Amino acid sequence: MKIYKVGDEKRAACEVCQSFQTVSFQLRDVPFSDGSGLVKNVVVGVCKTCDSVALLPFQSVPAVKKQLETQRKAVESRVPAHMIDILNLASAKLGATPEFIPLLMKYYIHMLATHPVAAVQLVQLLTSELATGLANKRLSLKGREIHNDINELKSLSQISNTTELLKGVVLAINNDVLINPDKQRIAHLKSLVATVA
To answer: Are residues 64 and 79 in the same domain?
Structure first.
């Protein structure tokens, strides 16, 4: 494996120029192609014609992976066992397996984070008897946007504790899927199940 130093040059394909160009290795802040983040101060090949990043050398891949892992850091919580049972039952009702639970939770967290009226109702759900119990089961969620959605939902619902917030989300799922079935939401979730099955 060749290690490139800042200032080294080579020929490489440039997507912007649509041709092979001379690239110069430089330190740059490079955004992810989907706009979800940025890798700071990494060695990349910069096209000398258009000044765009044309090449990511192998030596810079660990820095990119580290940044991606940081973005995908898990949200970990412990909830009562009956809440995992609720999520298992809701997944089954939607035609999914327990592996669908993280997607179901992330869907609801995102949906609630974009609907202030629904977010406020989480506080009321946490007053139910189902909100109590010994927290003996782990609930883990990963994703690039999960932290942002949870922070937004905390702000909207005025629930500052992540575990309490997740319990509220589970109870919202329980209400919409099992207790008072929301036909439109269930149809949408079944479509989601069909796309990931």
So the answer is: no
